[in-house]
Specification:
Blueprint lengths: L1 H8 L7 H10 L10 H4 L7 H11 L8 H10 L3 H12 L7 H7 L5 H11 L6 H8 L7 H12 L20 E4 L2 H5 L7 E6 L15 H18 E11 L2 E3 L9 E3 L1 H12 L1 E10 L10 H6 L11 E9 L5 H5 L4 H6 L11 E3 L14 H11 L5 E4 L6 H8 L3 E6 L2 H15 L7 E4 H8 L2
Parallel strand pairs: 1-10, 1-11, 2-3, 2-9, 6-8, 9-10
Antiparallel strand pairs: 3-7, 4-5, 6-7
Helix pairs in contact: 2-4, 4-6, 5-6, 6-8, 7-8, 12-13, 17-18
Amino acid sequence: MKEEISLSLNGLDNSNIAYITSILEKIGHISVDFDASPIVGLLTHFSPEVRVLAIKNLAKIKNDIYIQKFIEIYENDTSSIVRREAVSAIGRQRNKKNIPFFIRVLSDNDPKIACQAIRALLIFKGERLIDETLKLLINHENEMIKAVISKEYYAQKTDKNTKPHSFVPEQLKDVIVLGDVKDVLKTIKEESFHLTFTSPPYYNARDYSTYESYEAYLSFLETVFKEVYRTTKEGRFLIVNTSPVIVPRISRTHSSKRYPIPFDLHTILIKQGWEFIDDIVWEKPEYSVKNRIGGFQQHRKPLAYKPNSVTEYLMVYRKKTDKLLDWNIHQYDNDTIKSSKVSDGFFTTNVWKICPKSDKVHSAIFPIELCQKVIEYYSYKGDLIFDPFAGSGTLGRTAKSMDRKFFLTEKEPKYFEYMKSFLDVESLLEENHTKFMTLDEFKAKQGE
């Protein structure tokens, strides 16, 4: 095989990049006595892809004869990915003699290259020089580098006396509280919720959501989601359903105002520590939305184009943690993991086509299908699901039907009574009844 590789690479047409890369990708283990000269010749090939594969293969030879070549490539090559591969190749040698080189690479302007040097130095973590050098990077301007150093040296250790990750406080199971969510959340302990899925009130677009100003509205949401962050378990998810909203004009001589709620809220959440994961687009049928395009269809005048808004956002965030998702998953027993497995028919893209719902009491209720998908994709059976703006309580009913627990808050008495009208009846047939409480009643229960 070694001879075949040498023959294939010798005298080949250097312009045939696909042929060269196919050969380099097929090379497996390389022994020390292998004649690598044809591969060495490719280190100066005009294609960065070929140069990267040549470096990867030479790094398989477990000695330091090519270290100097790799260093020269790092210092002189014009391709960032080639320079990064050269640093990686030196790191794979796991040789202490290369520590000064890696310390020098830490100051590289390309953070991905610097991260390769960090990765190589962490092999020797525990040695004084290495630890002192790397700890200084906690003040690095690049967020990726700071995150690595934070995890390796400054991560908080989990308190072994805390409740299991899957634990749900009894007083929060299947509860709906009538009261301002800000007041309710103050009474709830840290690390209580596994998943929050909610649609905040629209800014001054409906009768039940009137605020003095847009700044006051954002300030209100900032306060709420700060408390949601505190009460969310480590590494678990917040999903916020929002969309830009139009506040109608007061007369024909004035303009309407469109507010970019998802984008302004995103900045707030990131500052609080939430990590952005995904933007899911909820697409509705065009017949179900307000017609904004009618006037333009008639006159077709430029500048007056106003498309029908058929989408809303489901912005997905995760509570900041140094742990990987596997850590969260491994908090559950095998039976729970197996029974919570997502069924066939899941969405494969970030565009979800789901019809909206409304009724005579609440004009903007969650569709059951939307709740089902979010709950199924972002929680396990037995988890506690939270909605700070419960409305008609669709999330709670759906969570219960999917063997999850729910906790809802709602400040509007008419919606609270509306939820009672059907959830009370449903609860009579169930072992775990839904508990309806005022804020004072809930506070009293917390003290028991």
